[in-house]
Amino acid sequence: MKNGSILLSLGCLLFLSCGEKAKNEKLETDEKIKSVSTIENTKKSDVFYHYSIWWAFVNKVFEGDITAGELKTKGDIALGSYNLLDGELIMLDGKLYQAKENGEVLEPNDSLKVVYANAAFFDKDGSFNIYKVENYETLRDTINKQLPSKNFFYAFKIKGNFKYMKCGGLHKQTPPFEEGLDVLIPNRPIFERENFSGTMVGFYCPEFIGNINVAGFHLHFVSDDETFAGHVMEFEAENLTVEFDKINQYQFVLPETKGYENVGFDKEFQYKKK
């Protein structure tokens, strides 16, 4: 009986040992699967994400149904506007900013709704330096000479020292909306600053984009001290580093709102196309 007990104990230990080994192997396999899944999920998507369309935005569609939190899943740089035009939208390195009409710059709550946005996960394809830029037009001309082709979409991060920067905002609206961007933009609030550093983020769309988006260059800005931001109107800068990401996939999502459902595409408006 004693020998039988010993054999039984050894058998139990062997069974438990095998069971523990199988359990550990399963845990290791699960961790590997989880690790691979995490790597796959963190790969950057090479897609230009576009919420709503420019033509709708021009025609007084000033309320959207996507949140700031959702927009963060579509890219790590972005520009656009929040619902009711309550602030210019800027995203840099995954952080969102709200440049209010009084010049205040805030980090919005993830629940804040967005009416219009362009976004992308920035994956640098090229870069170059510019010692001095006298104005916005000079920058556009220089970038146009550097791009591989103007038939693709591009995302930009443009960092440097700014001798002067002029940014625009928009006045917050209340429904019913009576004025479109053709009236609001010429009367927008203006913000100016001298001798500081910051980053412009934005996009280039080919001319064939039509009224879906802004053709040519569209840039927003945030200062390094996060106290000055908005839509880029004019500037003078030194020691700029221009980073660009060429994008060949485009996705736009239309709002599921009454405003978009009932909009009439009566007015056309584009920024200066270059």
Note down, in words, how this protein is organized:
There is one protein chain. It is built from six helices and 13 strands. It is of the alpha+beta class and 274 residues long. It has two domains: 43 residues; 214 residues, Hypothetical protein, similar to alpha- acetolactate decarboxylase, domain 2 (60s Ribosomal Protein L30, Chain: A). Strands 1, 2, 3, 4, 5, 6, 7 and 13 form an eight-stranded mixed sheet that branches. Strand 4 and strand 5 form a beta hairpin. It starts with a helix and ends in a 13-residue tail after the last helix.
What's the total count of β strands? 13
From the N-terminal CA to the C-terminal CA, the straight-line distance is 95 Å
Largest sheet: 8 strands, mixed
Number of structurally distinct domains: 2
CATH-scheme architecture of the largest domain: 2-Layer Sandwich
- And the CATH topology of the largest domain? 60s Ribosomal Protein L30, Chain: A
- What is the helix content? 25-40%
Poorly predicted runs are 6-10, 32-42
Shape: globular
CATH homologous superfamily caption of the largest domain: Hypothetical protein, similar to alpha- acetolactate decarboxylase, domain 2
**Series of secondary-structure elements, N-terminal to C-terminal:** HEHEHEEEEEEHEHEEEEH
| Structural class by secondary-structure content | alpha+beta
| Average pLDDT taken over every residue | 88
The fraction of residues in strands falls at: 35-45%
Q: In DSSP terms, counting alpha (H) and pi (I) runs of 4 or more, how many helices? A: 6
According to CATH, what is the class of the largest domain? Alpha Beta
Alpha carbon gyration radius: 26 Å
Enzyme class: lyase
GO biological process, one term: acetoin biosynthetic process
Protein name: Alpha-acetolactate decarboxylase
Keywords: Acetoin biosynthesis, Decarboxylase, Lyase
